[in-house]
Predict the structure.
Amino acid sequence: MNRTRALLLLALSLVLLGGGLAAWTQTSGGRTEIQDVRFTGDDGRQLSGLLYVPDGVSAANPAPGVLAVHGYINSRETQDAFAIEFARRGHVVLALDQQGHGNSAPPAFAHGFGGPAALAYLRSLDIVDKDNIGLEGHSMGGWTVLAAAQAMPDAYRSMILVGSSPGAPFAAEADTSWPRNVLNIYGTWEEFSPLMYAVDDPGDANASAKMKALFGTAETVEEGRLYGSVADGTARKLLRPVNTHPGLHADPRVVAASADWFAATLDGGRPAAGQTWWLKELGTFAAFVGGVLFLFPFGRLLLATPYFAPLRRSVPRPRGVRPGPAWWATAAVATAIPAVTYFWLQNRTTALLPVSGWFPQEITTGVMGWAVGNAVISLVLLLVWHYRANRTATLADYGLHTRGLGRAVVFAATVTGGLYLLLAFSDWAFKTDFRLWILQLHLMDALHFRIFLTYLLPFTFFFVVLGVVLHGQLRGAERSLRRDLALNVGVLVTGIAVLVVADYLPLLAGGTLAIPGQPLLIIIAMQFVPLLAVVALVSTYFYRLTGSVLPGAFVNAVFITWDLTAGTATQHPVDAWGGATGLVRVGLPVLAGAVLLVLAVRRLRGPREAVERETV
């Protein structure tokens, strides 16, 4: 128990120290004020942003302003590197949550992605020099600032497009007269070249018709050359850093070039040496690790309390596939299924279940379909193996204990609730979340909680089946906890990791992605490498403590559903509850799932009790 308390102390220390480091960095050691702002969008719905106000800035001493916007399915915090460095150089920065992202109300894609309203809000601040405003956007954030520039063509002086392109929805085709003073940053390993510049190979982007039109030349655009004039607003410059699409917003060279561009095209500001934003990334990553680590000792301490103690049972004797070639073959199938079905199941699901009030998030819906599809495939294979080779095994042998089901649900809610409180504390004390690069864990508002409830049951089904496969079918011999953890992490992570590497190798070698047409989903797949490692650790740890797959499965279901629904875009214009209609949308799936669960428990209990009586 002393080791458990020491681990808990370590977890809390990482959250506190990481959050403190992140807060110190983003405020430039107290010289920048961070404000969580809300304002009204063009449709009357709320938009959200983080406002960075450097010291010395006031209505009497206004500073240049910058609107910084993240890409699709990200949030305002993803722009930290740019926002921190712009603010260090004396700019007032509004890091926007695009419409339908983060704390901005849905739907995504609407009203210029929220760009025009955000620019209007930035200009309304008396601390901003309205004659010196810059626009910066990554990916779809580039389209957002282009939409703002199109709606208010005289409201800004220069622009930075990072991994983006002109000509997107809500933005006119570009030429040398529009938009004004553009730095175009485009990675040499860009995954979205067919979408952005209508070329398959990102190396051909410099010679694309769209790039030539933007730079006003008939020749291939030269990197680093200044085209046009800053004074008359026709300045153009191209930077081709060696990086991928998501890598651009955490690239020191990109951040430095962006700061230099605004220094050259906006009046005001101040010089600043070096870059410090990476310290915030380090801090929020430490907090993320601390938050995940917190689940284990906190859960173990809960299981020592009188209420949760009945969940602790001895681990059943191994009844799975015995060690040897058969085990490795089974493990290979288990790790290959998610990778083989990754694109197909997600695309089929979003085609069959388009965005609606029932399932308002396209990305989460696709991942849900992938998870449920994998659960069904795994369950069928498990049943075939069971009836052919393991017929005498009981539910308890597979870690399915139906008694204490409600207590296991409460346990999962309490464990993840503790993590949620840690995140809420970090948001309150430091104005930071838990994150690293594109991996992020957000707080949920009422809308996200309502969406979370609609997706929770399908993900719960997946994690229960996954637990049975890991701790029933693939547990054929006694193993140490450390070996069990390592093997289960390998089973869950290897397939997706191999998929990501295989898809990216041709691109990194100077070509294109191996699987064309799926750049967004492969970027999303990167997040599942660490997330599935966490899933394996949680599932294995709590199985060894309780002898049941359910507590760990329920913790994973809540954690992953929360992570997905709070961290992606909402495409349907749903309200938090939407009156009676919203209650029905949430209530019916929950009620139906509860009824099916009760019926399944009653059905499965009978055969188990019969086996137990026969044994006695």
